Hints:
The protein is an alpha+beta fold. The protein is 21% helix and 24% strand. It is built from 2 helices and 3 strands. It has a 3-stranded antiparallel sheet. A hairpin with a 3-residue loop joins strand 1 and strand 2 (36-43). The chain is globular, with a radius of gyration of 14 Å. It starts with 7 loop residues before the first helix and ends in a 19-residue tail after the last helix.
Amino acid sequence: MMNAPVTASSIGPALLAPPVHDRYDILRALARGGMAMVHLAREVDTGREVALKHLVVPEGQRPAEWRLRFQQEFHLAARLRHPYIVATYDYAEPREGH
């Protein structure tokens, strides 16, 4: 089952504020899943378009546990190599104060 496209009005402007870590400019929201938002972004240095997955911790949940799950997912996905699996390149924690 695919998630419905997400619009800026349905997620709020705070999640779309570019740039992210001074490395990615957010172009638009693509989808929202159970634990994350996915945006189309442009890598500032290369101009390459990428999908940027942003963790969204549900209200009332423990952020540290969700971050750990998200980080584990990244490390597992980064090891996968298959023509039908999206390549995973980067992981970053939020900057202090963001």
